[in-house]
Amino acid sequence: MSAPSQPPSPVDTHDRGLQRSLKNRHIQLIALGGAIGTGLFYGSSASITMAGPAILLAYLLGGAVIFLIMRALGEMSVHTPVSGAFSHYAYENWGSFPGFFSGWNYWFNYIAVSMAELVVVGSYVQFWFPGVPEWVSSAVFLVLVTAINLVSVRAFGEFEFWFAIIKVTAIVAMILFGLGIICFGWGNGGDATGISNLWAHGGFFPTGISGLTMAMVVVLFSFGGVELIGITAGEADDPRRSIPKAINQVVTRILIFYVGAIFVMLCLFPWNQVGKEGSPFVTIFSKLGIGSAATILNVVVLTAAVSAYNSGLYSNGRMLYSLARQGNAPAVLGRLNKAGSPWVGVLASSAVTALAVLLNFLLPGKVFLYVISVALIAGIFNWAMIVVTQLKFRERLGADEVSRLGFRMPWSPWSNYLVLACLAGVVVLMAFIPDYRVALYVGPAWIALLALAHSLRRRTR
């Protein structure tokens, strides 16, 4: 499908309605915090069970794929820094339906992620208040985070900055204390554990290459959220400086945190015992004589869940704003309040996410895994759209202008094809994991629904 030469309602490159109030520190921590959540604190046990110590390689490979996706997005974001980046770039460089699909699919992706995070918030609150139903806690945080997003983008940035600081501090503490146990025997009677657990229980590849391959499904889900950098471009005070810096640094930092934390876990515990005595984070702190380890961890994971929902609501409001300005969503969703927040888009996204509260009331304990699998397939659609759109972007610019780009995706177009092949492989692998299989039914149905909606939209116009 050829790209339209004149979009009917183009997005202003400078997004004058939105407020450019996000500093580089906000953007760095927004992306870092968005990708560090329950996937690391609890989900890592599942991936370790699949691959054993070889999971370290899976995170390195997954990180390389995500880095290339982020560079593809960064190339377009630096050239044209707008809010709702994915949808606008797909519309402008690829065509009407890709722009429509990309925007609405990203919104759908983060609705699923937000629902999942709201569902688990209730279980964390019950740690302190077991008599409070999970759905009540979910409802309280739904209202609180919605209010934060309606104030101003600066308020969102500050809250997300400090949410991320708490998570990052916890991970750094775990890595440092864990290394102290490994090297010096801190809290272990002076008996250093060393690193022999990496190979002493069936070798480094105890489940074979197949186990490593299957674990890539969980690993890629863990990295979801770094693409928030593209959404922030429309509200960054200096996007051509801060976006490249954020992309280059955040992927490296995420890899350090994930690989570092899991390396410590695998050195301290046999891979087939990780998580069996409770959270590895709790165990490490307990060994050091920190009796309140469980409370500390619960504060961190609650913060991680609220942070993920905060980021999801922010991005969804901006995506609906961008879709409205393209003419791909009702115009009312493009309205801004005096603080520059797309308040109608935020409230609409919050209202849909509130379904999680209802589902948590009706089906407690059964919602989380299904919603997570749907979020992953939608995330894969997003990443594939970014990589293909970047190829279309280069075609539109031409070789001369591409050579003058200040921030480029390395090794394109071959790196694009490699990323697409990896994403397709992950979709195939999802069919072999029961908890993720439901997404293979929801994904095609969602594509068909969007195709129908786009067709009806064109007819009504």
TrEMBL record:
Protein name: Aromatic amino acid transport protein AroP
Family from the record: Belongs to the amino acid-polyamine-organocation (APC) superfamily. Amino acid transporter (AAT) (TC 2.A.3.1) family.
Membrane topology category: Multi-pass membrane protein
Pfam family membership, one: AA_permease
Primary site of residence: membrane
UniProt xrefs under InterPro entries: AA-permease/SLC12A_dom, Amino_acid_permease_CS
Lineage: Bacteria, Bacillati, Actinomycetota, Actinomycetes, Propionibacteriales
Location of this chain's protein in the cell: Cell inner membrane
